[in-house]
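Lab manual, section 2.4: Encoding a predicted structure.

Procedure: take the sequence of the chain (363 residues), apply the prediction step described in section 2.3, and record the output as structure tokens. A sample record is shown.
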Amino acid sequence: MGRQTPLFQLHQELGARIVDFGGWDMPVQYTSQLAEHHAVRRDAGVFDVSHMCVVDLTGERVRAFLQYLLANDVARLATPGKALYSCLLNEAGGILDDLIAYYLTPAWFRLVVNAGTRDKDLAWIGAHAREFAVEVRERSDLAMLAVQGPQARARLAQLLPEAQATQALALGSFVGAQIGHWFIARTGYTGEDGFEVMMPAGDAVSAWRSLNTLGVASCGLGARDTLRLEAGMNLYGQDMDESTHPFESGLAWTVALQDGRRFIGREALEKIRAAGAPRKLVGLLLQDRGVLRGHQKVLVDGSAAGEITSGTFSPTLERSIALARVPAATAGAVQVEIRGKPLSASVVKPPFVRFGRSLLVLE
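Recorded output:
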């Protein structure tokens, strides 16, 4: 038995199929993964993301600490509540994790890191925080729900008193705020609008049931994966890890090298950039019949040259799509080896889908 979120018993009551995910017992689907996917693209769905690790960092030098710890620059965060996506790197420029950082006050930032890297991240952050006299507090008292889809924000707002609902609906993209007892952020991992809500663990079950009553579908990790892949969003452990760096993971935009700021992994990244990264992460659209899956070989000019990192059948596009790491010069047409047969695929620029619309662009 793995770790369980405060919603575990409710997932069982709702008939969810439970799987192990990074050491957590999590719902992969409730009724139909396809129906849950479409609910988010067309209306609204709710996901239990309480397995994610929320970390509060406090201290007079917390901003300086995060400028050293992260590849992206938190100096960009000037307005309380504003969030920043960044990679956490090792000295070699390898990706330890990807995360979201929220600026709350000059002495308080909040991080949300991945479930599977929780222990590793906490140890890494804690070891470096001591030099800056920053206190690290894991917020295991909080549950976290992701309410996503074109109607998600309006449905979640119905759970709040009028003044709080107005405040939540006024939040800008990638901004969060403490609204009553809940921290509500306009962020997500599906390519749709919505909220991620951090709340006292005791509030989670009633909030979930209330959302269901309002027509918000219960959604599992299966739909979350097809949604994020359509949105061209990386999954840690598949599309990136410690053996890869941001420049070959489609994450160059998260690295701030414009000034002389010293951060962990900078020296290695500067060398990689100067030499030119030999690989890149691209999108693939299968032209033949079949389904793209992780670890399938990508053939360029008939020879194995790359590998799919994440692949699936896209319910929105009704086509098979993937992210793949390939040689930097790769463009146009390639082949993917599926069950010993080379099938035709096109190199495309992610994302594939955002806000329910196809964004396919051939490279």
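Check your result against the sample. The first helix runs from residue 8 to 13.
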